[in-house]
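Dear colleague,

Thank you for sharing your sequence with our group. We've completed the structure prediction you requested, and as agreed, I am returning the results in plain text so they can be pasted directly into your records. Please verify that the sequence below matches your submission; if there's any discrepancy, let me know and we will rerun it promptly.
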Amino acid sequence: MKVFSLREAEAVFPLVRVITAQAYDELAPVLDAMRASVENRAALTRYEGDYEAIVQRWINKMERLGVVVSGLWLIDFDTGDGYVCWRYPEAALSFYHGHDQGFGQRRPLLDILREHPPGWATAGEAGE
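Please find the predicted structure tokens below.
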């Protein structure tokens, strides 16, 4: 996985958001079909395969971009000391949590930046 500065994460974010929105939209009719097929095991199995394929393609694309997939439509940009966290359909990169914390412990990114601006938030590139 890649270590991101805030600037790098913000540069990649629009692509992450577009790819995720496309996968989410592609998955919606599959979920509807799965719900309608609960009684039909053969159809449900086919839709489960479609579901898995869509999600796996999304995961593969996110990993190629260097982000950490933490759940369905939930990704983290590793900053070296924690993660800038995003969950679809949030409009911006607005949350942060430490490496030893999870989604439930994320805090507003602006609070982190106000308290003590970390190097990754002010650097042009990670490690600067």
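Summary note from our side: Helices lie at 6-36, 41-64, 109-115, 119-122.

Kind regards,
the structure core
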